[in-house]
Amino acid sequence: MMSRMTVVFMVAALLASLAAPAMAGGPPRLCLPIDGVTSDNAAVCTRRIGDALDARGVEHGDVEILHHGGQGYVVVSFNVPYVTLSTIESALDGSPFSIPRHKLRPFGHAVLVIDGDSTASDDLIDDLNALEHVEVDESELRDGALLVTLRMPYWMSGDVFHEMAASSRKASHGDVDDAAPVLSSYDTLRDVVSRHHARLRDLRWKCLACRMLGCVASASDGGDDSASTAVRLRQ
Fold this sequence. Notes:
- The chain has helices at about 5-25, 40-55, 85-90, 120-130, 165-170, 185-195; strands at about 30-35, 60-70, 70-80, 80-85, 105, 110-115, 135-140, 145-150, 155, 160, 200-205, 210-215, 235.
- The chain has one domain.
- The chain is an alpha+beta fold and about 240 residues long.
- The chain is built from six helices and 13 strands.
- About 25% of the residues lie in helices and about 30% in strands.
């Protein structure tokens, strides 16, 4: 099994390569793990996603497929106020390609789109704040959903992740170096929401200029925390 510190460097290297265009002043880029892509069908996959985004009138840049550590990633730039996980997933409906939610570990500012009883929102926010390296930035009710913006380790400069205030006041995780926190998984976020009789409907990201958005993959297919994806942060 791959060690946590090995994964630290793998993920840092992956995102360093992806972030270069954004840090040079380009549009925000979304990075998501994707399954089912091979060298033979990668062009089919990128064309399918691009065509689906065009059909929805979503302004975007080139769609790329990259591989790192045996995991495929779809990377695409956007010129829209925000982008959702379901937008990419719907583009893949009926295809051999999929976004593996059980592998996802969001980074940066991610917005949880939650359906359910809004009266439980205060307790829910407290439980989200209690997660390692997660801090609730803001929450609001809009169009029948509770939107909760989480602040997690995110891309700040060309070669490092920057540690947000949340991580400085939380304990390190197991034998991972203090400067390499473990990102919370999609499944963990979903389970916290479910405990409050609500449903995590979607993830979305505000498209902030010159910034990487999205998720990295967990080190194991099942998202096992014993081999979780971590990123090295600068203190």
